[in-house]
Amino acid sequence: MLSPGRRWPKGGSRVTNEELLSLDIDGLATLIRLREVSPVEVTETVLGRIAELDPVLNVFIAVTAESALAAARRLEAELRSGKYRGPLHGVPIALKDIFTVKGEVITAGSKILAQWRADEDATVVKRLKEAGAVLVGRTNLHEFAMGATTENPHYGPTRNPWDPRRIPGGSSGGSAAAVAAGMGYGALGTDTGGSIRLPAALCGIVGLKPTYGRVSRKGLLPLSWSLDHVGPMTRTVKDAAYLLEVLAGADDGDPSCSRRPVEPYGALVEPMGDRPLKGVRLGVVREYFFEDLDDEIRRAVDRALAVSEDLGAEIVEVTVPWIDEAAVAQRAISQVEGFAVHERWFRSQPELYGEDVRIRLEIGEKIPGYQYVQAQRIRRMFQKAFLKVFDRCDAVVAPTNARPPFGIGEVGPEETVNNIFRLGRTPLFNLLGFPVLSVPCGKTSEGLPVGLQWVGRPFGEASLLGFADAYEQATPWHREFAPRAVTPECLYDSLGDR
Q: Which positions are catalytic?
């Protein structure tokens, strides 16, 4: 256990560091609001946790301890004066190192940007600060977010907290590992083909890809303009709701951002009785999403469907046309737009890219324009076809990960384009742009997490969060994968270093 942190000078209960690290945002916010723990105490505890575990897990590219403590002291002073900003007041949050933070170097996991400093905060960073979040550092990622493993050739691989010999998923692997290991109560990620949901599933946490346009992307270094999404990664569904409420909303700096009003997502996620899913129809698309699954993952997902039925849901088998064509279209759009973003750098400094990203960019360069146009046409047809599914159901459920995480170094760089399709069942939902939430739904015989995706109608986040929260509350997985189970001793033993 870490040494005791700073406490409020008067009143309040004694809360151990282990108890602090085991809280979710909802529980921590209550203690901070009641002044039973202080923002400085919480921040010091999280920074201590980072110092303890990051030498093994390699989660952070940069830890911003000085600015985090300064922010925590300001937020503590606000509490003393009676000002409370809301559930994120004084809560330590991590950022994927792909969002601009004024005055800080933003690497995007590359060497190309190693000396570039941002001149303004990304919109989502600005909103987190305004909500009172304490930003503790910038997390590791697959280089330029172009991969599913977070094996970064420049900053080293991030390791999975549940087996440090394995990948955490990607590209937001550092953000997922940070939340899973207690190095932050939440984190921001980006999702172009599953880069929030896949690492969330592999690390046993919650990951939300909101509707395209629900959250601003201003200040995000893009991978694919028409596929990129920004969203929260948290320990529970309700925590994801709190973060979404802060992050969502119109932004004149992002022309793709919706002006649709933001709902009070956190307040909408509440218990709904003994059979909270009664009357809810959950669609299951067997084609593609349930094909070629690891046997243990299939059994975990089948058990999750049975639990949902016990909670009152009706499971409805549905079919969708254009799935095979949509998978090809998603690849083409991602690869062409990715090359378009990097064309100038790639032509002038190709040697600064890792081998796997170079391979990916070379593929994108060779795709002809007519194929990109055809891919976008297929996208529109697939969106229309999938929307019709919601005539028969209220949400769709599907596996998040198709197999357990690879071992670090197990898959060569030539597989970079295929990894997301081999590991997960996530990319087609980026093509759709619909909201998708991944929650833990089981574990393998080796103790590795399994994720379940909940897919909703466009801008249907409120209902989706409610459905997933009802499932989460009826299952043990958000407690099974609690940060207190990640210890230095377990990590070193897994690596054979002790």
A: 96, 171, 195
